[in-house]
Write a structure and sequence with these properties.
OB fold (Dihydrolipoamide Acetyltransferase, E2P), 1 helix, elongated, Lipoprotein
Length: 222
């Protein structure tokens, strides 16, 4: 039997009326999770964190590829991108910015969808979704929300199983349906929007298997 951590979450109606997430202040050089807007400037990338006026030169760390990923999205005509990443601030090298932000881990890079305005991000553990057929699953500590076009939203209790390597399973058999969402750490690209995220997703709903991408919310435990 594989090692696992099992938790059972009860269902509570707390998916709405959430506060917008804002990272805690941090000292320079300390890794922190940051969300914000990315634009191109003078051949480089500039980050403006959510709810701030400051701007930082956005650069890749040893294990990130934001420059390449953003180039592909900008090539599709985007004027600005939304980024969700962990990294560290440091002093600036250019007079037109407030310093530098070096990306250590990229969680999400996209040109459409919820960004700084996501009201559920603070409570979200995992947000997953896929195309053809379209589906979306949001998981927080109170339950699992399944959304599909043309069908009523379902809010369900779930059991989570975490296995070595960073993969997790969120499963339920409520309401006569057997549902299991698997997420695993790996670069994932949405085939329709081009958005890049840090988790792959597989939704098993009764006898159907649907694949997609996912990203960790603020409540995700790494």
């Amino acid at each position: 039997m594989r090692p696992a951590r099992l938790f059972l979450y009860a269902l509570l109606p707390l998916f709405a009326a959430c506060q917008v997430w804002k990272p805690e202040p941090t000292r320079q050089d300390a890794p922190t999770r940051v969300q914000g807007e990315v634009t191109r400037q003078d051949g480089g990338l500039v980050l403006r964190p959510c709810n701030e006026q400051r701007q930082f030169n956005l650069v890749d760390g040893p294990d990130s590829a934001v420059a390449r990923e953003s180039r592909d999205l900008f090539a599709d005509g985007a004027g600005k991108l939304f980024i969700d990443a962990r990294g560290a601030y440091s002093g600036g090298q250019a007079s037109n910015t407030d310093g530098k932000f070096e990306v250590r881990s990229l969680y999400r890079l996209q040109n459409e969808g919820h960004g700084c305005d996501d009201p559920n991000f603070r409570q979200t553990i995992v947000q997953a979704g896929g195309n053809e057929p379209g589906w979306s699953v949001m998981v927080n500590a109170q339950g699992l929300l399944l959304q599909r076009p043309g069908q009523a939203d379902q809010v369900l209790p779930y059991v989570v199983e975490s296995v070595p390597g960073g993969s997790s399973s969120y499963s339920t058999e409520a309401n006569g349906e057997k549902l299991e969402l698997w997420v695993a750490p790996a670069r994932c690209v949405n085939g329709m929007s081009g958005a890049v995220s840090s988790l792959t997703a597989e939704l098993r709903l009764d006898d159907k298997v649907m694949r997609g991408c996912a990203y960790p919310g603020a409540a995700y435990q790494e």
